[in-house]
Amino acid sequence: MANTMKMAILIATVALCMSSLLSLVYAGANINGYITGKVVCDPCINGGKPIKSAQMMVICFDKKTNDGTYARKGITNDVGVYKIAMKPGIEADYCEVRLHKNSPWKACKGIIPGKNVTTVNFNNKPVGLSNNKPVYAAADVIGYKRRRSLCN
């Protein structure tokens, strides 16, 4: 009886692992490219200082109906750069990247109207490839501001 129970648990565990693996493979097949950009502190001062672990979100809308078609979160790396996967078909939509959460830096938390969001122009050529998929650049650097910022 104990061996039967152990075997059932083993089979269930293997099935769960296989199902997770298949979903990862399937999810990878549905990635059509990436959107990349940068998040900084004080973008109005010499391009700003990169912010690690800043969170942003790509949001896409159908150009005709204005219905939401895609949303996906991302996080910046050590040099303030994010790379967010995109699904097939969003190249025909209007997409923008927005700061999603508060800045991880205590000294740089202010919101700068117009500098907390940028668009993605799929009409431009990709800036490169990642995993043999195109990488599109966001139009502008986005960021937060310090108390005494040059940004309006």
What integer value in Å does the Rg equal?
A: 20 Å
- Any idea what the shape is? globular
CATH class of the largest domain: Mainly Beta
CATH topology annotation of the largest domain = Immunoglobulin-like
Helical content class: 10-25%
Question: Would you identify the CATH architecture of the largest domain?
Answer: Sandwich
Strand content: 35-45%
Please, how many helices? 1
Q: Going by CATH, what is the homologous superfamily of the largest domain?
A: Immunoglobulins
Low-confidence stretches: 5-28
Number of domains: 2
The main sheet comes to: 7 strands, mixed
Instruction: Find the structural class using helix and strand composition.
Output: alpha+beta
**Mean pLDDT over the full residue set:** 80
- Helix and strand string, N-terminal first? HEEEEEEEEEEE
Distance between the termini: 72 Å
Number of DSSP strands?
Answer: 11
Pfam family, one: Pollen_Ole_e_1
Family: Belongs to the Ole e I family.
Keywords: Disulfide bond, Signal
Signal peptide: 1-27
